Amino acid sequence: MILEELFVQIGLIFVVASFLAFIAARLKQPPIIAYIIAGILVGPRLAQLGSAEFFKTLSEIGIAFLLFTVGLNLNWRNIREIGWVALGTGIGQVAFTSGVAYYVGVALGLDQVTSAYVAVAIAFSSTIVVVKLLSDKDDLSTLYGKIAVGFLIVQDLLAILFLLLISATRSGGDVTTLLTVAVGKWIVVIVLLLIASNWILPRLTRMAARSQELLFLFGVAWCFGVASFLAMVGFGFELGALLAGISLSGVPYSQEIASRLRPLRDFFLIIFFILLGTQLSLDIVYTQAVLVIALSLFVIVVEPLIMLIILRALGYHPHTGFMVGTTVSQVSEFSFILLGAGVASGHIGQEAVTLVTLVALITIGSSSYFITHNDAIYRFFRPVLRLLEPKQARHEGEIKKRKSFSVLLIGCDRMGNVLLPKLKALHEPYLVVDFNPHVHETLEQRRIPHVYGDASDHEFLEDIRAQQAKLIISTVPNDELNTALLAHLRFKRYRGTVIVTVPAAEQAVHAYHLGATFVIVPSVLSGERFWDFLKKERLDRGRWQKLAKRVGG
Question: I want to staple 86 with a disulfide (CB 3.0 to 4.6 A). Which of 150, 157, 166, 539 is the partner?
């Protein structure tokens, strides 16, 4: 009878969650919100039947799978590509946000320990939500997308340190001694995992990869084996699951393991977020409504502003700072894990988890709109953000040295860097526009004429006299920038050639309507070039096999 009741409860949970997820998808909201609301609705029923502990165990399995897959997908190259920027924004944002939020919490009536936990919790942003939304917009490869992913990885690493600190204080005693012992354990564990990652795991996964079922089973076994071992030595299963994933991230089959674990992870993770909803007491909405609203506004307004200031101090254009800032305006899943560890350690009460859950519900919902429409929001705030833009003298000096130019290249990162030697070969005066400070350092060293600015800004285009160029090439696949550029050129009755880059074919039609001479769609262009290559080969059957080897190799 008990099994039948549990089966019915699981069925009820997923029916309600599925119905609400359909509504969330219709409203273009992350499904996490639907899961939390489902927990609010079914929570009283679960409490009556006394099955909360069962679902808590399932939710912990979801946490383990989540952290394991996060570890599998930790891309260290993203940190190396943007170097100190990821570290500066990641550490700086967490430090400034948690510091300010701590005093806000104390001022609004929280005790010091609870305020410290809540401040740290709301300082972290959701890797899952941000990466999902940026992927939907095809913005992961943009400058602000790279910075966002970079500082999210740094935040994940900082969360590990906080979990280590909390784990060190669970058993009581002197914190310094506990931390010393924990650091010693940490060093031993890291050494063991490095040895396993470099010499043992590649061989094991190669053997397991002969069978997809065996590879899946090995991934699950490694996740729970490492997590259980680290839990026994005092680190906690959360940290163990994450380290298990990181140790496997370097093997050739890590993505295959992650893809096969994803459905299982999502199943248990849905229960985790539903359980969060069941713990949400609506009484706190009435008793601490001011605190909930204040913390939500802090996450939505103050955190993006802090990120904007940090990036501006690092030399980035306000446009980049604003776009990155919109990605920090929500609470992370890691926050609940940190708070749960704090509750388990006896440092804080369940009220802190309820409070942050309410803030997360509000901020995750709002941030999905902010990230999706951040270009339009930036245009609205641009008059104010002009105050933070570099002084006009930064590009006026270059323009005076270059009184005229025939070619204007906008964006000099990937495609632009490839085109640059071709422009030089034209032996025509040219000018490069970019607002990535690292690109400008490189251009400065190479003595390439360039200006720092936002090519979507009409005033900036007017200042550099963009309309004087005979050829304008934009390698930035951003629809907002292309629209602003083409609108400015149409207003100036431009008669030259303008080439723009768009991420998708449907945006090419819009660019042609605005007056583009030619539109580059990278995916379509690469496909056409490859087909031209095939036609030129005039392949017979034997040469098809030769081509296949060339492509595969």
Answer: 150
- pLDDT (mean) for 151-167: 77
Task: Report strand pairing: 450-452 vs 471-474.
Answer: unpaired
Q: How many whole angstroms separate alpha carbon 307 and alpha carbon 93? A: 6
Find the range with the poorest average confidence among 272-281, 321-330, 525-534.
Answer: 525-534
Residue 240, domain extent: 2-384
Q: Are 63 and 272 in contact (CB under 8 A)?
A: yes
Closest by CA to 319, choosing from 396, 391, 398, 374, is 374
CATH number at residue 436: 3.40.50.720
Whether residue 416 lies inside any domain: the answer is: yes
Residue with tokens 């290249």: 409
* Residue 65 backbone dihedrals phi, psi, to 5 degrees: -65, -40
Q: Give the number of other CB atoms < 10 A from CB of residue 106.
A: 15
Shared domain for 363 and 409, answered yes or no, is no
Q: At what angle do helices 541-552 and 522-537 cross, to 10 degrees?
A: 140
Question: In terms of domains, do 52 and 91 share one?
Answer: yes
Residues 6 or more apart in contact with residue 372 via CB below 8 angstroms = 28, 133, 136, 137
Q: Supply the DSSP string of 245-314, one letter for each residue.
A: HHHHTTSTTHHHHHHHHHHHHHHHHHHHHHHHHHT--THHHHHSHHHHHHHHHIIIIIHHHHHHHHHHHT
The answer to whether residues 370 and 482 belong to one domain is no
Same domain for 114 and 198, yes or no, is yes
Tell me whether residue 529 is in a domain: no
| pTM exceeds 0.90 for this model | no
